[in-house]
Amino acid sequence: MSDPFDGTERSLGQLVASATAEMSALVHDEIALAKAEIRQDVKRGAIGSAAGIAAAVVLLFSLPMLSFALAYAINTWTGGHNGHGGWNLVWCFLLSFAFNVLLAGLLAVIAVAKFKKVKPPEKSIASAKQTAAIMQNVKPHPRPESRPALDKASVVARSSV
């Protein structure tokens, strides 16, 4: 950036070009900030989605095999292996199902916790609001009410200096 107080006057074109370049840089920086914040929230959302999908997959695919294995293990643990009968297999299968539901619930809680951490890009919003507030307060330099009529000779003499 050029120093506005370096003793030289810049033309209107140079001032407009400088202001345009600085505004462009500001907009690019705000876009980069928004992208960075959104990228972080997308990661959190992806982790939450993955945990939710994992909960559904565990509940869906593990129920048949895990339920049978767990039910027969409960039946064996309660004495069904030695011919004394043990618990009824119905109760064993219900306990097996309850275990699977608890596991899916735990994964769902992890998914909800990750989704709650997803927030709007607060820094980008604050920066954009601050820029908008500054831009609303910017006023152009006052122009002189009237210019004296210049003849061609004085304009030529002035521009050749």
Describe this structure in words.
By secondary structure, the chain is mainly α. The protein has 4 helices and no strands. α1 (12-77) packs antiparallel against α2 and α1 packs antiparallel against α3. The mean pLDDT is 78.
What would a concise description of this structure say?
73% of the residues lie in helices and 0% in strands. The chain is mainly alpha-helical and 161 residues long. Helix 1 (12-77) packs antiparallel against helix 2 and helix 1 packs antiparallel against helix 3 (122-137).
Quickly list its features.
single chain, 161 residues, mainly alpha
| Order of SSEs | HHHH
Which stretches of 5+ consecutive residues score pLDDT under 50? none
Largest beta-sheet details = none
**Share of residues in helices:** over 70%
Strand content: under 5%
Mean pLDDT: 78
- The number of helices is 4
Number of strands: 0
Overall geometric form:
rod-shaped
Class inferred from helices and paired strands = mainly alpha
In angstroms, what is the radius of gyration? Answer: 36 Å
End-to-end span in angstroms?
28 Å
List the helices and strands and how they pair.
Elements: H1 12-77, H2 89-116, H3 122-137, H4 152-159
Helix pairs in contact: 1-2, 1-3
